[in-house]
Amino acid sequence: MRNLTVLFTLTGLLATAPAQAQTVNWDAYKGTTLRVLLNQHPWTTAVQPYFPEFEKLTGIKLAVETYPEAQFRQKVLVELSTGGQNLDAFMLSPGQEGLLYARSGWVEDMKPYTVNKTLTAGNWGFSDFYPSVVRSTEYNGIMTGIPIQTETPMLFYRKDLLAKYKIAVPKTLTQLEAAAKALNGKDGVAGIALRGKGASATSQFSPYMFSYGSSWLTRDGQANFTDPKFIQAMNMYTGLLRNYGPPAAVTMSWPEVTNLFAQGKVAMFTDASLFRSIVDDPKSSTVAGKVGYAPFPAGPAGRKPYVTTWALSISKGSKNKQAAWLFTQWATNRENQLRVLLQDVPAVRRSVWNDPTFKKQETSPEWTQAHLSQLASANPLWNPPVSQVGEVRDALGQAIVSILQGGNTADLLKRAEQTVNTIISKEK
Amino acid sequence: MTSAPTHTRGQPRPGGGFSSWLDRNIRWVFPLPTLIVLFALTILPLVFNLILSTQERSVSDALPSSFVGLGNFTQAFSDPRFWNATWLMMKFTLIAVPAQMLLGLGLAVLLNRHMRAQGLVRAAVLLPMISTPVAVALIWALMMDPNLGVLNYFLQTLGLERSLWLADPALVIPALALVDVWQWTPLVALILLAGLQTMPDDPFEAARIDGASSWQAFRYITWPLLQPALFAALTIRLIDALKTFDIIEVMTQGGPGSASETLNVYAYHTGFEFLRVGYTAALLTLLLVVVAAVAIGVNLLRRRV
């Protein structure tokens, strides 16, 4: 029996040996310990259980720390700004921190690694990644990380309620408004929920802004908040929330929005595709199985979604960059990408969406369709392209809260524009 | 004097080198480790903070940095958000601390009576104080949720209007103060109870013989004797309330808008979200000045009373 096992193992080795021997020596950094900082994110939940496989393959030990998002971002920032010598690999959200980290010289440029013949396996297949997702990691000429998951905005709706009140799935923002109006108050639900909590609302406002044909900045890099199209988009966003939204919208970010939907208190919401993993999971949602998905509704300028990405990055100060690359490479291989997709986390590799295992368990082809159809045309600027993203989001967020509390849109946006222009002028 | 000095305790041994030096300087040597730790953990950061507050600095070298002297302070004085934050800090403290003192006093007087299951009751009363503030804040945030929270359910059952709680800019500070009162009243009660229990029996006995009512006994004996404990509790709670951070950051992050952004929370945002560490250092220096002024003020008041 034992001989048989050995024989099988040997055959297995022989079959895979040629492909790997030509390319990468996985145990070249045996004995290294990598310090890895991760965000408590569905991606982490899906992949972390398999980390021992990597440790076995490479002989590299992983010292992993995970934190909730706010603490996680702060921890990484503090470590990188003080040199980042003790940090090897970490999760990065390029649309939020990419520009600052690239300009500060805190992250490795990943491009050379992806084409390095001795460090990168030939079958890793970088061309398998969606180009728009890869582009969303590039700031200041640097590829700040290798994407691990991606999100596009989506319309989440209650199939049962739309059917009951004979409302068609909204395809445009005008139809969305009409549907929110028709559903508001029916069966004890609010018509629609959106983020209203200051800075957190700005990213989910961005597809409304794009769909009205506006942008964060003008051509000469100034804040564009007084653009009439920007004001119209803001009136649409805040109007939906004020007229057909739940009470207390000004305190709601994604945890509150998804929770309210999962508790059956709201008929629709627009937010990131990733949140299917919350609202359609029988463990966390009372409306699981009744959730419908549609691409983000089109505005006067057409259908203009954003794309956000989480990536794995390597600290510039790390003393184990090659080993950290092996980890990044392993974590983004096909097998692991399939694993995250099977947990409803949108994968970044084309091939896994066509994998038979995924096809077999796929419960909502419309989610897949909505997400994938948006990727090609998606805009990576879900945040303003400035280094001081946090401060700029806060300035616009303050305006959003005041508008939701009844303030004048044009006046408040004008004031926010002045604040933001002061911030931008200091960056140069 | 030719005779050899008589040797007494505390005087240096003749020719003892290091040990005689040690004997002479023992009052400096013993506290030295504490002084070193204090210096490293309190004085140095304070000095560093003061230096930082004179600079326009970001955490990233990619953003400009320069010496601005008192520029950060003049900027703070013309920053409406700074004044808003200072006012909210005061408002929070002025609501929370008097309520804690009053309730704490009442609770201490109650607990001082002899009752059945005394130990159990006292332990139960102290529970809020020993819970982790972040956990307390999360639970209160859930209870105050306007859509799903249990507090609105109670209000509705009682036939009252539902409240927006933390989402209402006018209500958010009182609501946060309520949580602070819930958590810290037991501390006040504990300090005052200790004050009550160390009181001598004789004056009360004398008062009883003289026919004083229980209110008179409280007003003319308990109250004056309780002053030291009252001032201790007041000082501790004032300082703590002024620099409250955890429950506010967990429950509202300063929102809605900046309706609950106290000075400490604002400084946290300018530091960790806006990355402006120079300005943050100036804000925190101002916070330190306010807290120190209040502490000194209470101390002066106490001497007068």
From TrEMBL, chain A:
Keywords, alphabetical: Signal
Annotated transmembrane regions: none
Signal peptide range in chain numbering: 1-21
Highest taxon of source: Bacteria
CDD domains assigned to the protein according to its UniProt record, in alphabetical order: PBP2_TMBP_like
Protein name as catalogued: ABC transporter substrate-binding protein
UniProtKB/TrEMBL annotation, chain B:
Location in or out of the cell: Cell membrane
Keyword terms of this UniProt record: Cell membrane, Membrane, Transmembrane, Transmembrane helix, Transport
Presence of keyword Transport: yes
Membrane topology: Multi-pass membrane protein
Pfam families named in the record: BPD_transp_1
Main location: membrane
Superkingdom assignment: Bacteria
Membrane-crossing residue ranges in chain numbering: 28-52, 88-111, 123-143, 171-196, 217-239, 277-301
InterPro entries attached to this UniProt entry: ABC_transporter_permease, MetI-like, MetI-like_sf
Domain spans labelled ABC transmembrane type-1: 86-296
UniProt-listed SUPFAM superfamilies: MetI-like
Family: Belongs to the binding-protein-dependent transport system permease family.
Protein name from the UniProt record: ABC transporter permease
Organism, as annotated: Deinococcus aerolatus
